[in-house]
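Ops channel
N.P.: pipeline sanity check, posting one input/output pair.
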């Protein structure tokens, strides 16, 4: 059974713009020029408050729960974090969103490639960040670009988590075992 690793920020919840906006506000209000100085403020930020305002992208939570119920793939959320308070807030929100079924979560420090924390070989990564996909592909994984627009990518692309089963069978039928169909 193949594992599908799904990125959190920008795939499940639309957090990227919120976090970037907050970084810009911190930088401007405190007249900061160095990223290291901004990071100090990020440690003390109300991550739960910011993340809980993010919208769910394209019904992703229900699509992931449906994938879990189909049991064709092992589903794991693979997400990066900048600070421990961000990690704790993500952990709480993800568990709340996927209650009562639950879901496995793997956290990756922002300075580490996702493919250094889990084994990509033969497994699928759905991510919106091209650098993550390139590293995953180079390490032998199946990289699928999540995009909510008409952005061009050299990787197969989906705009909705609900498309993943069909996309995987079309692109990689020899790697994906059909245990139920």
């Amino acid at each position: 059974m193949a594992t599908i690793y799904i990125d959190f920020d920008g795939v499940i919840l639309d957090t990227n713009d919120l976090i970037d906006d907050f970084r810009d506000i911190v930088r401007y209000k405190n007249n900061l020029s160095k990223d290291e100085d901004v990071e100090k403020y990020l440690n003390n930020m109300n991550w739960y408050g910011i993340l809980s305002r993010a919208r769910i992208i394209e019904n992703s939570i229900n699509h992931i729960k449906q994938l879990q119920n189909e049991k064709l793939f092992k589903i794991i959320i693979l997400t990066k974090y900048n600070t421990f308070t961000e990690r704790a807030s993500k952990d709480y929100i993800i568990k709340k969103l996927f209650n009562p079924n639950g879901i496995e979560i793997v956290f990756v420090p922002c300075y580490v490639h996702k493919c250094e924390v889990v084994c990509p070989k033969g497994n699928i990564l759905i991510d919106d960040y091209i650098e993550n996909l390139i590293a995953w592909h180079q390490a032998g994984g199946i990289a699928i670009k999540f995009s909510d627009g008409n952005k061009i990518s050299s990787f197969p692309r989906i705009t909705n988590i609900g498309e993943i089963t069909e996309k995987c069978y079309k692109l990689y039928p020899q790697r994906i075992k059909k245990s139920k169909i």
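N.P.: looks fine end to end. Strands lie at 3-6, 74-81, 104-109, 124-127, 142-146, 157-158.
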